[in-house]
């Protein structure tokens, strides 16, 4: 895989999965479990629709122990600032950690803007969580993944993704427990 081609996540062959955030408070994070976990070294969030401006704070979930899906540690700094990249405002990409005070915001409203994370080694990703920022958030996005920095696959799904609201679980991260809406 190379930087010229990224594959989009698909849950049904031939259909790109577009994740829908729904109308959730900007202070809440929304988790999207992946029906088909992916193995990747690089993950890209490509905003499709947004309110205000394209702003993201994210966490990735993976299979770590005994098949349980757990945060990979973006929020708590398990991945250094240099593992975050972006199409615009690349110096601010590391602010995209879930619950950070700022978040990453695209410099332009054009299509093709993205936030990219280098997982440093191949990992199984079983879910993602996103959160907006004051004044803007991503309402839908496409998830791309790859084993190199040059080729990515799109995560795809048949039909619309429905955000399950009002299910609150405890998320343990830096700064204590936080409620995360699933």
Offer a few descriptive terms.
182 residues; 13 strands; two-stranded antiparallel ribbon; Galactose-bd-like_sf; F5/8 type C domain-containing protein; mainly beta
**Share in helix:** under 10%
- The parts where pLDDT drops under 50 for at least 5 residues are 158-182
The gyration radius over C-alpha positions equals 15 Å
* Number of helices, where a helix is a run of at least 4 consecutive DSSP H or I residues: 0
Largest sheet composition: 11 strands, mixed
Order of helices and strands: EEEEEEEEEEEEE
Mean of residue pLDDT? 78
Beta strand %: over 45%
The structural class is mainly beta
**Dominant shape:** globular
Gap from first CA to last CA: 32 Å
Number of strand segments: 13
